[in-house]
Design a protein that fits this description.
The protein is mostly helical. The protein folds into three domains: about 120 residues, HUPs (Rossmann fold), CATH 3.40.50; about 120 residues, Serine Threonine Protein Phosphatase 5, Tetratricopeptide repeat (Alpha Horseshoe); about 180 residues, DNA Cyclobutane Dipyrimidine Photolyase, subunit A, domain 3, CATH 1.10.579.10. The protein is built from 19 helices and five strands. The protein has a five-stranded parallel β-sheet with strand order 3-2-1-4-5, sandwiched between helices. Strand 1, helix 1 and strand 2 form a beta-alpha-beta unit.
């Protein structure tokens, strides 16, 4: 066996694919030992499988992380299989006697990690975990009565009152390399083929730590100043930061975003009100993790169990039309097509399409959550589930739960130029802005001039807005009556 000074420390990367400001990596470096880097493609039946878009991003991010590690003299070891077996095998192969990782907060993941920590300690090994993905961990912020917050605004006030970002940890100058077995990333077949439906992703995204830092830098240089207004405009290229997938994969941490933004606020370089609205979106992500931690079945069970009696409809034709962006409502269809082509959708449009599915069509929110899980590059176990439940009305802080978005007026208000619809629903591109969000209201000669034949080149609405709204309100009234009678 090597002596204690040369015995390596092993860093197990998971949802923290960065070298800078990585608490687990920093702790390993501070031991003074050689630091080895490991990623395990976990294949545990109790863990939710990654969606297709997430697998694409993971491949690209691991490529980037591997290159960054190599530039520091190290090597990223890749293993696949049951996490505990794969990790213990890696420990034995490398003769490491200390393992470091950053924590996860889903119930199944916590169970896996707890069992692994116990197994390593039973072998006399050092095993430590850290917070590398949240500002404050889900159990940290409590109400005055000692419970967890169920409403966002007081929760976020409490976080801001007590949070102080820790000192940043620098990127390690030197990492270790060891000639042990490692999988070939290509063999994991994370990238889609036949067809390559992710062909357009690379035109939009640059996965990896460098891409994340560039996104933040570019956003804070100017767009953040108009964020309070522009964040609801899907027709604007830089209205949002685009950091959500980088955050999900841990290519950048929320503490890094907080420090960079707060520094610019303090120096007067940015519009403070707008910048704080941006930080509040980081707060919503944090709040979602509180919900996930307190409600482990957030992706499958109603946060508000009153909704167990919701009269959902089995509308397969409507659901399929929704997934394909063929509902007949341009703002809805634009969002669903943007999702398919880029792996991402503007947040305002996410609310519109989710409202349409769960309220106009009365299709269960779980079906929408599952579709987003498969198609979003930023499909996050907390934010995805919490946001779908919020829109459906079954989630935390979801009042007024009976609100039904009007997809016509939402389009007119937030895509007032029509440019978003023109980009993603090109068959409507030549319609005047006045009619682009409700093409069925245009005169026949105007439709003909624009090359639009309703029912052929573009569908009629699959349900009238008024009918969909009334049906949704009737369903909510039924739910209310059942609750009151209980």
């Amino acid at each position: 066996m090597p002596d204690s000074e040369s015995t390596p420390a092993l860093v197990w990367f998971r949802n923290d694919l960065r070298l800078e400001d990585n608490p687990a990596l920093n702790a390993a470096v501070n031991t003074g030992r050689p630091v080895l880097c490991l990623y395990i493609l976990e294949q545990d039946s109790d863990l939710r499988d990654r969606g297709g878009a997430s697998r694409w991003w993971l491949h690209k991010s691991l490529e980037s992380l591997s290159a960054d590690i190599e530039s520091a003299g190290g090597r990223l070891i890749l293993r696949a299989g049951d996490a505990q077996k794969a990790l213990i095998a890696a420990v034995e192969d490398t003769e490491a006697d200390a393992v470091f990782w950053n924590r996860r907060y889903g119930a199944a993941e916590r169970e896996v990690d707890s069992a692994i920590k116990s197994a390593l300690k039973d072998k006399g090994l050092r095993a430590e975990s850290f917070n590398g993905s949240l500002l404050t961990e889900p159990w940290t912020i409590e109400t005055q009565s000692g419970g967890h917050y169920r409403v966002f605004s007081p929760y976020w006030r409490a976080v801001q009152a007590c949070y102080s970002a820790p000192s940043p940890a620098k990127k390690p100058k030197e990492l270790a390399k060891l000639d042990v077995a490692s999988d070939d990333l290509a063999d994991w077949e994370l990238l889609p083929t036949s067809p390559n439906w992710a062909d357009g992703f690379e035109d939009v995204w640059a996965p990896g730590e460098a891409g994340a830092q560039e996104r933040l830098k570019s956003f804070l240089e100017s767009p953040v100043n108009q964020y309070k207004i522009d964040r609801n405009r899907p027709d604007l290229k830089n209205g949002t930061s685009g950091l959500s997938p980088h955050l999900h994969f841990g290519e950048i941490g929320p503490a890094q975003i907080w420090r960079a933004t707060q520094s610019r606020i303090d120096s007067g370089e940015v519009n403070e009100k707008s910048a704080r609205v941006f930080l509040s979106e980081i707060g919503w992500r944090e709040f979602s993790y509180v919900q996930l931690f307190q409600n482990p079945d957030l992706a499958t069970e109603n946060y508000n169990d009153d909704f167990d009696n919701m009269p959902w409809r089995d509308d397969e034709d409507g659901y399929v039309a929704w997934t394909k962006g063929r509902t007949g409502y341009p703002i809805v269809d634009a969002g669903m097509r943007q999702l398919w082509h880029t792996g991402w959708m503007h947040n305002r449009v996410r609310m519109i399409v989710a409202s349409f599915l769960t309220k106009h069509l009365l299709v269960h929110w779980q079906r929408g959550e599952d579709w987003f899980w498969d198609t979003l590059v930023d499909a996050d176990p907390a934010s995805n589930s919490a946001s779908w439940q919020w829109t459906a009305g079954s989630g935390a802080d979801a009042a007024p739960y009976f609100r039904v978005f009007n997809p016509i007026t939402q389009g007119q208000k937030f895509d007032e130029t029509g440019d978003y619809v023109r980009q993603w629903v090109p068959e409507l591109a030549d319609l005047p802005t006045k009619h682009i969000h409700a093409p069925w209201e245009a005169y026949d000669d105007l439709l003909s001039k624009a090359g639009v034949t309703l029912g052929e080149t573009y569908p009629y609405p699959i349900i009238e807005h008024k009918k969909g709204r009334e049906r949704a309100l009737d369903a909510y009234e039924t739910l209310k009556n059942q609750r009151d009678a209980a």
